[in-house]
């Protein structure tokens, strides 16, 4: 089994960051290196440095690299980490994704026993204190059954064939560089863009349901609009991947099934929130798809990543 480098971009991480480091240190397949790519406002982030220092003696593979906030990019920052890695496999995680057990890295790495697998991503679980609709959404997107997706699945699965989340995704390093790596600068969606290129080139993407992390968010409707605006922008910029596989159908399927679940499970009080979130997601996504027709001031009011537009 190939060795693994773990890459974690950080920005003012919360209390779960220490738990993440602890659980990485206990993995049955120990990482060769854990590289923290920390974003700070012009000076080192003491919180991250202290967390790393607290673990350095017992978890010697930890290291941290600080970058200025103005230099952060979803694709470029992670790509920098790939250039530092010298292992066959690279696991990208986020600062708030906490392994459920000790076999996260092992279960992802095992997917690459198949030489046709270019990437593998894990299952995201919502915490017990999350809303019913958040738990349903996680189950919808991350079911309890593993699968392998290929170009042959495009007609049946559509855009879901390209789905791969850097919240917890492992990549074959040589294939990563062969395909040009993560696009940068990129507004959002660097993982799905690269996964789409892999699929188009004949590689396969594995979903490992036994590689589990706790990870969920409760975004406001406005934040949902902004994130989905950026999603629409990313898809509009890559018609070669997404033009034939729009997201609207999959989104409507999720909303309909979630509404039925809430009504039947005694959580009907969450239906207004589902409607508000869904409307904002759809509006943001549609506006993002048409961003070229919008004034720059409107774009900056809608985007969740204003610094990206400084590159244009």
Structural class: alpha/beta
Q: Class of the largest domain in CATH?
A: Alpha Beta
User: What is the makeup of the main sheet?
Assistant: 9 strands, mixed
**Helical run tally:** 13
Structural domain tally: 2
Indicate the CATH topology of the largest domain.
Spore Coat Polysaccharide Biosynthesis Protein SpsA, Chain A
What is the share of helical residues? 40-55%
Instruction: Please tell me what the overall shape is.
Output: globular
Strand percent estimate: 15-25%
In the CATH classification, which architecture of the largest domain applies?
Answer: Alpha-Beta Complex
First-last Cα distance? 42 Å
> How many strand elements?
9
Would you mind describing this structure in some detail?
This protein is of the alpha/beta class and 312 residues long. The protein folds into 2 domains: 4-214, Alpha-Beta Complex (Spore Coat Polysaccharide Biosynthesis Protein SpsA, Chain A); 221-311, no CATH class. Helix content is 43%, strand content 18%. It is built from 13 helices and 9 strands. It has helices at 16-25, 46-56, 74-84, 104-110, 132-141, 154-157, 173-178, 190-200, 221-236, 239-242, 248-264, 271-289, 296-302, and strands spanning 4-10, 33-40, 62-68, 89-93, 98-99, 117-125, 147-149, 168-172, 204-214. Strands 1, 2, 3, 4, 5, 6, 7, 8 and 9 form a 9-stranded mixed β-sheet that branches. Helix 2 (46-56) links the parallel strand 2 (33-40) and strand 3 (62-68). Helix 5 crosses helix 11 (248-264) and helix 9 (221-236) runs parallel beside helix 12 (271-289). It is globular. The N and C termini lie far apart (42 Å). 41% of the residues are buried. The mean pLDDT is 93.
């Amino acid at each position: 089994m190939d060795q693994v480098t773990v890459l974690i971009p950080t920005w003012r991480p919360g209390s779960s960051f220490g738990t993440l480091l602890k659980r990485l240190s206990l993995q049955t397949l120990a990482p060769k290196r854990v590289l923290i790519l920390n974003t700070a406002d012009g000076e080192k982030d003491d919180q991250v440095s202290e967390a790393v220092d607290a673990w350095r003696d017992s978890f010697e593979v930890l290291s941290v690299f600080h970058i200025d906030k103005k230099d952060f990019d979803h694709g470029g920052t992670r790509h920098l980490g790939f250039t530092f890695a010298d292992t066959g496999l690279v696991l990208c995680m986020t600062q708030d994704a906490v392994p459920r057990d000790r076999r996260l890295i092992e279960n992802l790495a095992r997917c690459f026993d198949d030489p046709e697998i270019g990437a593998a991503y894990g299952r995201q679980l919502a915490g017990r204190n999350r809303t019913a609709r958040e738990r349903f959404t996680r189950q919808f997107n991350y079911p309890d059954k593993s699968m392998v997706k290929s170009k042959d699945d495009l007609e049946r699965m559509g855009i879901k064939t390209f789905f791969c989340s850097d919240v917890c995704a492992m990549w074959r390093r040589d294939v990563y560089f062969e395909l040009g790596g993560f696009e940068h600068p990129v507004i959002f969606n660097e993982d799905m863009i690269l996964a789409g290129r892999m699929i188009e080139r004949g590689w396969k993407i594995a979903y490992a349901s036994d590689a589990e992390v706790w990870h969920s968010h409760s975004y406001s409707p406005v934040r949902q609009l902004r994130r989905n605006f950026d999603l629409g922008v990313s898809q509009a910029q890559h018609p070669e991947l997404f033009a034939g596989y729009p997201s609207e159908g999959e989104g409507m399927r999720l909303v309909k099934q979630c509404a039925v679940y809430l009504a039947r499970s005694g959580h009907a009080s969450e239906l207004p929130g589902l409607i508000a979130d869904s409307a904002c997601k759809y509006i943001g996504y549609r506006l993002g798809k048409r961003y070229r027709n919008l004034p720059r001031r409107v774009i900056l009011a809608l985007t969740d990543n204003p610094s990206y537009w400084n590159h244009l």
